[in-house]
Write a structure and sequence with these properties.
Elements (H helix, E strand, L loop, with lengths): L2 E15 L4 E2 L2 E2 L4 E3 L7 H13 L5 H4 L12 H14 L2 E11 L9 H12 L6 E6 L5 H4 L3 E12 L1
Parallel strand pairs: 5-6
Antiparallel strand pairs: 1-4, 1-7, 2-3, 5-7
Helix pairs in contact: 1-3, 3-4
Bound molecules: zinc ion (ZN).
Zinc ion (ZN) binds next to strand 1 and helix 1.
Length: about 160
């Protein structure tokens, strides 16, 4: 009998000049990039946290602390693969991912298929199992002022 478990992940990063903007494992051309200890990929971090949360395995900060120099500027695709191994080691597999990015600019629609491919590839899913949506905040708040970017993700796990 399979058992289903859902997880929620939320992540925030500041947007600053002079940083690459990694989103969903894809380098998105922009005037600003996300600030963080790793490559600051807000979407992959939210997905990692949702996966860990669904399995009640803590959070990304527990497994990959930002005080550890091993993770300085690390490619978050590596963290996603590590989280995938962690949940598999606990007998879970991912059923699907549904994520929403909140950012004012740039338009990310052209990059979504590439993001789906990266994430599906790392999690052993098909692109139909990976949903990525984006919304602005209608110019409201820190997202609207382009001071930051937010991602929310839900991940469903199945235990065999
Ligand atoms: Zn993060």
């Amino acid at each position: 009998m399979s058992k289903l478990r859902i997880g929620l992940g939320v992540d925030f990063h500041q947007l600053v000049d002079g940083r690459d903007f990694w989103l969903g494992g894809v380098l998105v051309p922009h005037t600003k990039g996300a600030l963080g200890h790793s490559d600051a990929d807000v979407l992959l971090h939210a997905i990692c946290d949702a996966m860990l949360g669904a399995a009640a395995l803590g959070d990304i900060g527990t497994h990959f602390p930002d005080t550890d120099n091993t993770y300085k500027d690390i490619d978050s695709k590596i963290l996603l693969s590590r989280c995938s191994e962690l949940i598999k080691g606990n007998g879970y597999s991912v059923v699907n991912v549904d994520a929403t990015l909140c950012l004012q600019a740039p338009k990310i629609k052209p990059y979504v298929p590439q993001m789906q491919e990266v994430i599906a590839g790392r999690l052993g899913l098909t692109i139909e199992d990976v949903s990525i949506k984006a919304t602005t905040t209608e110019m409201l708040g820190f997202v609207g002022r382009e001071e930051g970017v937010v991602a929310y993700a839900n991940v469903l796990l199945e235990k065999q």
